[in-house]
Amino acid sequence: MSHHQAHDHSDNGHEHHDDSHGHDHSDEIEPALQTLIWQQIEFEKIRTLNESEPDAGAKIVEKTWPQRLNPEPELASDSDEQLLMFVPFAGVLKLHSLLIRSSDSAAAPKTLHLFLNNDDLDFSSAADTHPTQTLTLSQTSDIQEIPVKRALFGNTYSLTMFVEDNYGDEVSRVSYLGFKGEFTRLSREPVEVLYERAANPRDHAPVVGTGGILKGAGRHGM
């Protein structure tokens, strides 16, 4: 049973995932690497609350596509079944779907709340904040690809994921987490600034009623 405050997720963004879709098949040859987001994740800034091992959350995100079925490293919750993970990106992401692998046991996460561009959530504030979208995960050890509502995630700088509960275990377990979408890197080019070569006398006209020149007057004259 959760030691954190529970959140009622009976909202319009709540969706159920069908087991018959999004599963991993060994005969597929890297099915969607053209939209797999990996290099653009800021791994060193990933934060996970209630993880049993330090940096376990970051390590499952750091797994490459060929490593997706490796059982280790694994993210496991600590004091109860809840997990809260913050993942930032090095630019703007149009998020299409999540890729996740857990297990077919009761430790599989069930209710997953997604929060867009919110970097200061903890368990209490996550429970009190309306999620951008809520997903229901399947109890399976296959790779689940879960589409999100693209209209809601068109400008994703970071994603916070709140695992509220699982299928009955005291511990939640996740062994792979990935993202698919379209990425636009933030420009780091220097901004060209144009300077006025000579002052324009009209820019420094006397202000009526002051008896002189009032430089830099604001729109309200203050």
Walk me through the structure.
The structure is a single chain. This protein has 222 residues and is mostly beta strands. Helices cover 6% and strands 31% of the residues. The chain has two helices and eleven strands; from the N terminus they run βββαβββαβββββ. The strands form two sheets. Strands 1, 2, 3, 5, 6, 7, 8, 9 and 11 form a nine-stranded mixed β-sheet that branches. Strands 4-10 form a two-stranded antiparallel sheet.
Q: So how many helices?
A: 2
Determine the N-to-C terminus distance: 60 Å
Question: What is the averaged pLDDT score?
Answer: 81
Percent helix, as a range, is: under 10%
Tell the overall outline. globular
Uncertain parts? 5-32, 190-196, 203-222
Number of strands: 11
Strand content: 25-35%
Q: What is the CA-based Rg, rounded?
A: 24 Å
**What structural category characterises the helix and strand content?**
mainly beta
Order of helices and strands, N to C? EEEHEEEHEEEEE
Largest sheet: 9 strands, mixed
Quick recap:
The protein has 222 residues and is mainly β. The chain has helices spanning 56-62, 123-128, and strands at residues 14-16, 36-37, 47-49, 75-76, 83-101, 109-116, 133-136, 144-147, 156-166, 173-174, 176-185. 6% of the residues lie in helices and 31% in strands.
